[in-house]
User: Fold this.
Amino acid sequence: MGDGSRARRVYTVRGKYRVVAELLRQAEGTLLDVGARDRHLAARLDQHRLEYHSADLGEGCDYRVNLEEGLEFPDGAFDYVVALDVLEHVEHIHRAFHELARITRRCLIIALPNLSALSRRWSFLWRGHLGTKKYDLYPEHQGDRHRWLTVYPQINAFVEENAARTGLVLEQVFEELQGRRVARVLGYVAARSGLLPRGLLTERCIYVLVRR
Assistant:
């Protein structure tokens, strides 16, 4: 993220679903969870306050959508829109971001993985891969794969610039730190103290964008 950003940066050892559920603890209105799959987020939300809707490519969700083809919802259709580890799967990532922003009335929350984290570098150095099968080349097309190598400085710049273009304000960034519990706690201390380069221990960034 550029030095000019005013977004509050928070380091966390909690997983993405816990972070987002806590962010939405007092939220009211409608929410669309894009890329919901098994609806893990829904189980953590108070659905008496927040009307939850799931959306994904496959069956079993409230809406069947394809981000590559756009979203058939009117502007501002949902108060809250969430897309966790979704955008890296689509070819037209910029257009997909704009579609998510378009249907957001109040707040958009997205998460992007950081493939330049220390654990990914270590895995590639010693194993020859990034620790995820989303980039592997198989004899047959694997279908669900990452289209983008999302790395820390680029994902920050991507979100910041496209937020401004869609009329959203980047309010907060949660950096989910990697490793097992002890490693995460030590990473939290190191990140807060500035002892390590920014993003080195960050597994993913969770961006909170609001419409004002």
